[in-house]
Design brief:
Number of helices: 8
Shape: globular
Radius of gyration: 19 Å
Helix content: over 70%
Order of helices and strands: HHHHHHHH
Strand content: under 5%
Mean pLDDT: 91
Largest sheet: none
Distance between the termini: 42 Å
Number of domains: 2
Length: about 190
């Protein structure tokens, strides 16, 4: 359920874009999808706050970027701004991972350290890997946005970026499994 809630704005963006493109003629599908994504991000953020009495940082970053870049897309009737949104968000996440060791533990350890125990060097390596991943995906998004048609970019935004993220998580899991510290055996 949490995964579905996390992807609520992008799923609605995709669904509205596809629906609008099929049933309504004209080039306005990107604008309708952008408006729906902004509303969905507001709903997502409010729902999380009502349920958990806190705002999740990733939801807040997504909301702010959608309001700013999506708002510019709607105001100027230029889809370039919404196409930059995934890159900006990914670069912000990449920067957070890169800078986190300057403020204590690497972000990977802060996020997963309660669940597993690996050597400190592994947390640092994973942290840099995530930073590089987010930065690279940001550039890949722009490559697709500027070298392919809008529909291809919309498909990549949902399936390509999501698929790459899942593949990276699986690869990370295999890497971490090799380094998980075993608990000391109990003595009788």
């Amino acid at each position: 359920m949490k995964l579905l809630v996390s992807f609520f704005p992008i799923i609605l963006f995709f669904a509205v874009y596809k629906f609008y493109g099929i049933y309504v003629s004209g080039p306005d599908a990107i604008y309708a999808a952008t408006a729906v994504a902004i509303v969905a991000a507001f709903i997502q953020t409010l729902w999380h706050w009502f349920v958990h009495k806190e705002v999740e940082k990733t939801h807040l970053i997504t909301l702010v970027m959608l309001v700013v870049l999506g708002g510019m897309t709607l105001a100027f009737r230029d889809p370039t701004f919404i196409k930059w949104k995934p890159s900006v968000v990914n670069w912000l996440f990449g920067a957070a991972f890169l800078l986190s060791p300057l403020f204590g533990k690497p972000l990977t350890e802060r996020l997963m350290g309660h669940a597993i125990e690996v050597p400190d060097i592994i947390w640092k390596q994973l942290n840099y890997a995530w930073a590089i991943f987010f930065i690279a995906v940001g550039f890949l998004n722009l490559y697709v946005a500027y070298n392919y048609d809008e529909e291809t970019w919309v498909n990549f935004k949902l399936f390509g970026m999501l698929g790459l993220t899942f593949a990276f998580i699986i690869a990370q899991s295999f890497y971490m499994a090799r380094h998980i510290k075993d608990e000391a055996p109990e003595e009788n």
